[in-house]
Automatic annotation (TrEMBL):
<feature type="compositionally biased region" description="Polar residues">
    <location>
        <begin position="1153"/>
        <end position="1162"/>
    </location>
</feature>
<dbReference type="InterPro" id="IPR003392">
    <property type="entry name" value="PTHD_SSD"/>
</dbReference>
<feature type="transmembrane region" description="Helical">
    <location>
        <begin position="402"/>
        <end position="425"/>
    </location>
</feature>
<dbReference type="InterPro" id="IPR051697">
    <property type="entry name" value="Patched_domain-protein"/>
</dbReference>
<keyword id="KW-0325">Glycoprotein</keyword>
<feature type="transmembrane region" description="Helical">
    <location>
        <begin position="264"/>
        <end position="288"/>
    </location>
</feature>
<feature type="transmembrane region" description="Helical">
    <location>
        <begin position="801"/>
        <end position="820"/>
    </location>
</feature>
<feature type="compositionally biased region" description="Basic and acidic residues">
    <location>
        <begin position="1142"/>
        <end position="1152"/>
    </location>
</feature>
<feature type="transmembrane region" description="Helical">
    <location>
        <begin position="326"/>
        <end position="347"/>
    </location>
</feature>
<feature type="compositionally biased region" description="Polar residues">
    <location>
        <begin position="989"/>
        <end position="1005"/>
    </location>
</feature>
<feature type="transmembrane region" description="Helical">
    <location>
        <begin position="832"/>
        <end position="853"/>
    </location>
</feature>
<keyword id="KW-1133">Transmembrane helix</keyword>
<feature type="transmembrane region" description="Helical">
    <location>
        <begin position="703"/>
        <end position="723"/>
    </location>
</feature>
<feature type="transmembrane region" description="Helical">
    <location>
        <begin position="367"/>
        <end position="390"/>
    </location>
</feature>
<feature type="transmembrane region" description="Helical">
    <location>
        <begin position="494"/>
        <end position="514"/>
    </location>
</feature>
<feature type="region of interest" description="Disordered">
    <location>
        <begin position="918"/>
        <end position="963"/>
    </location>
</feature>
<feature type="transmembrane region" description="Helical">
    <location>
        <begin position="759"/>
        <end position="781"/>
    </location>
</feature>
Amino acid sequence: MMFNCIDRTLSNWFKHLGHFIGDNPGYFVIVPLLIALIFATGIQRLHYEDDPEYLFSPTNGRSKYERQAFDQMFHMNYSQNFDSSRITHKGRFGRVIVATKNEANVLSKAIFDEIVFLDKAIRSLKIEYDDVEYRYADLCAKTERGTCWENDILDFAPRIEEIESRKYFLHYPIWINQDVYKAYFFPAFLGGVRNDSNGLIESARAVNLMYFLDVTVKRGDEKAAIWEQKFLQLLANMQFKHISIARFVSTTLRTELESNTQSLVPFFCVTVIVMLVFSVGTCMMSDWVRSKPWLGLLACISAELGVVASFGLCMYCGIDMISINLAAPFLMLGVGMDDAFVLLAAWRRTNPSHSVSVRLGHTYSEAAISITITSVTNFISFMIGILTPFPSVRIFCIYTSIAVLFTYIYHITFFGGCMAFFGYIEKRKLHALVFVPVMPKSLAVNKGSCFQLFCTGGRNEADPDNPIDNKDHAVMIFFRDNLANSLNKRSIKVVVLAIFLVYLIIGIYGCTIVKEGLDRRKLSRDDSYSVKYYDYDDRFFREYPYRIQVMVNKTLNYADPDVQDQIEAMLLKFESSEYVESSILTESWLRAYKSFLQQEQSFIFVQALNITDKQDFIRGFRDIFLHFPLTETFRNDVVFNENGTEIIATRYVIQTKNIKDANMEKDMLIALRRIADSFHEYNVQIFHQLFIFFDQFILVRDISLQTISIAAFVMMFISLLFIPSPICAFWVAFSIISIEIGVIGYMTLWAVNLDSISMINLIMCIGFSVDFSAHICYAYISCEASTPSERVRHALYSLGLPILQGSVSTILGIIALAFTPSYLFLTFFKTVFLVMLFGATHGVLLLPVLLSITDNCRSDREKSDKSLYRNNVSLTPHPFDRSEKTFDGKRITQNGNPIYIPRPTYIEALVSSTEAKYNETTSPVDEDSGQGSKSSASSEDSVINEKDLGLGTSGEECSEGSWKASKEKAAIIQSENQLQHFPMPRNLSVPNLNRKNQSKWLPSTSHEDSHVNYGYISDSGDNYTVEHSSHPLASRKAEANSSQAICAAGSSAKTNRLSAYHYESPLPFGSGRHHQLEFQKITAPNAAKESLYYRQSDQRQHNKHQKTPEQFFQEIEKRRMEIKRRLQQQQNEQKPKYQHNYQEREKRRPNESENNFLTNNRQIKKNFHQFGDKTSE
């Protein structure tokens, strides 16, 4: 299929690359280092961007276009006509909120005196610019009267005692001083106000003081920036008896973003140390030759080199640097360590007897595809994030996607070269830590425990497959024998599904209460001075928070009563909204002008004007109405054309109420825009300077869903390239959706809003979640076991440990973010932790259960292969199944786990070789050295080149970890015919292998020295029982196996294959299910713990010699029958000597001691080998 072609093409390419790196490791270490150093110089072009308005607002937000329209029509000059309720840019300012310490009334004499003193101290603050001193009066923003913008609440200082004693009354929320014709808008200055039944102020809890600065020119902006810093320093050092103050300036958010960055630097060092300890620890083994502690250190270095090179390249390209980019090195540490674990695991599954280049080639052919999938999914996820309209998300995704790419490249090149170097160290059997020769553990049994623990490693060349030097990984055994067996139980499946349903219900509930938007305080550190300000502001000043500007951007005849009615209807509709206060707080020049015209006192001014005439209407407004003190504020609300004959735009101001949080801010903006859009014929627009941020609240949900959906579909497509199974594609998609629901729901319950920061993580989670799901599915369908339970065991055995290591390494990589006093980085930790937790549990718990239930996930390749076998191969019963299920007169029973019958594969050598070739490559076991003669074939060709599942990425069926079972291709026909067709003496007696009497027959050393199995044993462990049996064929098979290259005392344990052709037969006992057998490996009781891996021949190496299936099978059968006939004839000639050897052995055995047992056993095996030599001739 196309999918398999992609897999195999990449596999071959990576295999050649691994060979090349293994032969030339120095280039792949030095060149990447030089490239990283070159790119690191890009820091000289660093441009740090910390403007929160630019970073956290959408580039295409509606508010930015609306602000542009307001600036065009109602431009504000901070030095001439400043009005705080009509600003469109934040400018420069200082703001201080004063609250009482004991919740007293701020409108009391003692407290108000401290407030007045604070105001005087601020106004008297001096700065120096170009050797000139400036005070607030020199820098302030000025109104049309040419005076500084003032805090009107301080006008009541002379009468504060009367207000406190309730002799002087102030109406809330607005009060007009009839003596000076001045209006006071109290919600702008007083917070926590309590009124009486008449709306008169009784008390207040807080006072807001604001100081706006002139930023009209650049020099003014520079002086204002200096004044802001002096303002913060002054208030930080001031202490009062009755009041507590919170300060804030225009640059607070900007400086807080930079402070977030600085707070992360110390934690980076801690993270590196933690990752080094974890990586070095997980790369160590009790075998100090195979252990790779230094590679754990180099894996961290490789990841960080990739980050340095990628960041330098981005800086050279002129991409802005932002604070949240510093989360990328932490993420790359986790991702990089995951890739390193995969490569090291694949290296350990290769044949140690091969050359380093061959081993590295096999490692790359297996694992490089796996880390390629991981890197491709992560890279594409971040590339999709670049499409979002939020600059913070876009910049972070650019940096991180390039970092993922460079980390991948550096693991393939730099880390691969390091693996080659340490492969040569392992080849020389040097200690992995101190690089000195060490002794194999099997030869150090008489040494001390400390010596065995710290100074042993490698394999005994005399017995390379002994169980002491070839111990399996305990965690992998746990996943296969404990977790998998538990998940295969029906009751456990029910429990897992029930827990998943509870998880999903809670996640869906969390999704229904998700909060959107990035609150201002979350941009600051938890220990920042601004947090106190945000708390006071939210606590005391949320009743009337925002003054909203409404613009009619169209030329109209406002003298027309119909137009006046339409404008009034528009204002009434705004005021009827639940988020807007009544008309009492609305500023409308049209209402005020109409009211003025209707007053009797105004008749004397307008009696000569025809108000229904457009020109008279404009003349009366401009020349008469705007010259009263109370109406001066409307001068900037009406825009005339150049001739002053037309009103081309007008502005109104409405007041919002009771806006408590970001969700209400979002709902308010949507509701007000909906009203504005309903008057589209007048081109109505609304604006407030914070609407720039509120746009994020509106867009973040839709953009998140859109981006996540696109990423999920892309991830599923990538998975289909390597898992061509519709049902598995469904489960991958299901897992992605489930994990995303869980992350969104649980992060909401964990106090994380859906904002631009969490959006980054949700996009990133798509790439992380697909890894575990896709690889587990692939491992399951790629296994040829006939039962779902065995596939579950195989999948968890192959992937349980890598998933555990990958998730733990990623969490450790960002664990330091959990301790930073910053919402930005804490959000990274929470979301990545959730996706790693849910992704890992989906992979090792949920998916195995779901796959075993459906059990329809079969790859098309596997189905076509099985169909080919059934159509072209006659079913020949397995030789073992011809016998009764008894042994030496007693019935054979099985305890515990099922017996594994491995499966044979086609050996292409049969097609192009002769019988002499088979005989030449079959070598007897030498009784003295314990080693078989080496095959003339090269070490690379002697191993069937197959792909290991690794993380489930290979397109082929079997595991490279079964290299022990593929030493020789040619010994199959001879041994199989010997076992199948030689008669067995009737009087043969075989010792009982029951645990109760095992010590009676075998000395303690025989478990390591003699890998002889006299009956059936389980691959999954040593839990077996062989009862008394005398069946000749079973006994004959056991002795024949012990006499051949399969099992010999101290032998090199070259694996003997039982068949060169495929056949099916029921199991010897138990389930009766049919298996396609590849090979039968019989080992000693201790060696029974070794897993039997199933292999398939690599037919790609023999494409030039391939024949049609019919010709292939006919030739196999023809050659098999010929060899069978010749061996039968030779067997008949040697029968007396054959029987005599068995009779002599059985006669001497009861009288011999345990120490002489092995000697007699070797003599018997020698006779068998002599016999085998004759038969092979």
